Structures are given as structure tokens and as C-alpha cells.
Amino acid sequence: MSKKICVVGLGYIGLPTAVMFANHGMQVHGVDVNKRAVEMINNKQLHIEENGLEEQLTKAVDQGLFQASTEPVEADVFIVAVPSPINEDKTANLSYVRQATEAIAPFVKKGSLVILESTVPPRTVEDVMIPVLEKTGLTIGEELFISHSPERVIPGRVFEELVNNDRIVGGINEASSQMTKELYEVFVKGTIHLTDATTAELVKVIENTYRDINIAFANELAKISENIGVNAWEAIHLANFHPRVNIHFPGPGVGGHCIAVDPWFLVEQQPETAKLVHLARQINDSMPGYTAEKVQKTLQERGIQHGRVAVFGLAFKANIDDMRESPSLEVIENLKQMNVDLTVYDPHIKENKLPHQTQELNEAVSHADIILVLTDHQNFKELNPEELKDSVRSKIVIDTKNCLPRSKWEQAGFEVLVLGDSKNI
Length: 425
Description:
Layout: E1 4-8, H1 14-22, E2 27-31, H2 35-42, H3 53-62, E3 66-69, E4 77-80, H4 95-104, E5 113-116, H5 124-134, E6 145-148, H6 158-164, E7 167-171, H7 174-184, E8 192-196, H8 197-228, H9 232-239, H10 263-269, H11 275-301, E9 308-312, H12 327-337, E10 341-345, E11 357-358, H13 361-365, E12 370-373, H14 378-381, E13 396-399, H15 406-411, E14 415-418
Parallel strand pairs: 1-2, 1-4, 2-3, 4-5, 5-6, 7-8, 9-10, 9-12, 10-11, 12-13, 13-14
Antiparallel strand pairs: 6-7
């Protein structure tokens, strides 16, 4: 199969997908509104962090099979991989999907296939994309084929999971589904499951909502444990030995472009029915404030006036540079409102994104009273507390991810407090 593919949106999903197709022999044209990102990509430079992406991008460009620009081109296949965030009122913002569809409309031709990969509310293909594409004059389902195939990968392991994960394909008709299945079979080794477009949209939202509810349960357990004198991490670990129990772990909140966003799609569409979904969202959205209150309480109980906090971690998960919907940002904002002096450090965020951010570890911990760990980067797990103890002031660590080797830090003279552990907080 040799087709020309146009991928719209060269972010954490679109760019790896584009180079994956290119490195399997397809001619791929990437599109992004970010001119700097386009320029960097064409120069084989990364504007995002992902394991193996630099090598894959270099190979694709050097072979002449991948290039990027700010405008679409005519192609056999169009893949839309743009963000679908939520507005301040928690409603879906589908403007990027609509704009991307409008951008490719002049370039589709008879026989073209349009695939939406973005995670979206159910009926987005039917209610947003199809009305735009109908204006091309092509008969939908006969001359122009459309499907939804949501990404199912985790940052840090994108290339491995693009290949090995099962994939859901939902076409507007059987022909659209089959065309999409044949396309992805170029590199997908997992099973490709066929359904209709709206079901595929719901499947992806269900997957992320399940995880959100599970995390909310863990966060609620953390609060309960602190009140009744239990270590939630130990209790959850032991409960998970049950063959039919798999509880996630608590933390300072939920981030990322999916789990913190997608459940709101269901709440928006079915507010009277999605009550459990809504409650889980409220619990997880409360955790950054809860975490900030823990910091404030710790300072007050120890009589620390004008305390300084070194915040470790901006990315929403370990070992990546993705800050989308990161709870760290909310924790920091809450601390600012409490007039807490702070510094911010994340070794994976190469450019300073915040006023109080530093690229230097020693600068981050200098005269800090509390080191607040919000992301479980491997860099943090491997820190030597002996090298930091002379720089910090009060030698207190609040570990919201339970990721530091506690005994090692305590031996260096630090007081280690863990979110969800009543024995320490």
C-alpha cells in the first residue's frame, strides 16, 4: 500500500504517528499552526519530548518521506490529531477539530479517507466533521470516507504502544472502517476492532473516565487513611493482591490531555445521569488545593514564618515534558494565593515556563523549608539527599507520589511526609 498521508496536528500524538507512517514507506505531509514547531521538525529538531522520537524523525526526514508546513496539501488520507480541550465552564472546546476539518476540506478528493484521532465527545464526527465535509460536494460514505480511530498510547512509550496496542476503528460505514483498518495494519500488530464512529468516540472516553474514577477512589482513600491512622499506599498495595482488585494510587491531582478532560464530555452531554463521573472529577480537581493546604498546615505546625517551598515537578506524569492539565500548576497557583514563597524545578522542562522556575537544582532547594514532590520523575528518585541537606533550611519533604526512598532521606536528616500516610502527616 502506498498512499500520501496528511497529518494535521504535530503534537504528542500527531508527530509520532506521522513519522511512524513515513518510516513504513508512506509519503507524509505534516501540518501544524505553530510555525516554530514546523521549522524545528523540518530541521530534525524536537519541540516535544518522547522516547525514540528524535531517531524516528531524523530517519523519516532523511528518507524524504516526511516534511511539515503550516498548510495542508492534497492527499489520499487525512489524519486529524489536534487538541480537544475543555473550556473554563468544563464544556468541550471543539474549535480545533472544526478548524482542522475546514482546513483540509479544500484538499480532499474523490476516494479520500479522513480519520479523526483526537479524543472527542460522542457524535463529534457526525455533528462537527461531516457537516463541514459535506460542503465539498463529495458523497459522504461513497466518495469521501470518514472514521474515528482514537489514540491509545501513553507518553514515554508512544512508539511501543502504537505498534502493540489493540486499536479501535469506527467508520461512518463499513467501507470507511475497512479502509482505516487496512491503513493502520501497515504498522499495528495489535488487534484492530471495528465499530461505528460514535461508539469508537465513546469507547475512548469510557477508558479515560474509568481511570479517572479509579484515581478519585484512591484519592478519597488517601484522605480517609489520614483521618483514621492508616497508610493508604500500604492498604492499596495489599488490597491489589486480590485477583479482581486493581486500585490506582493517590496523588496531587490528575493531569494530561485525556484523563483530566474526557470525563467532562459525559457530564456535559448527560449532566443528570453522569453523577458518579461528575463526583470523581470534583474529587480529583480538589487534590491540588488539598495538597497546598497540607503544605500550609505543615509550615504553620512547625512555626515556620515566611516559609519557602521548592516544588519538584511540572509535568503531569513521570519522565516526560508534557504539562497539559498538570495538577502541579494548580498546586503552585494555590500556594501563590496563600502567599507562600516558592521555586519550581523540573529537569524535563527545558525552558522556564513560570516566573519562579529554575533550571538549576541547587538554586531550587536553596534556603527551602519544604521540598514538595509533585511528579515522580526518575531524576527525583535518584537524588542524593546528602548533597542537598546543606542547601535546604528546614529539611522537610512532602512526597505526594510516594516515590522517594524514605529511609535514605531520613538518614540524611530529612523529615519525610507522604500524602495519604497518617503516620507522617
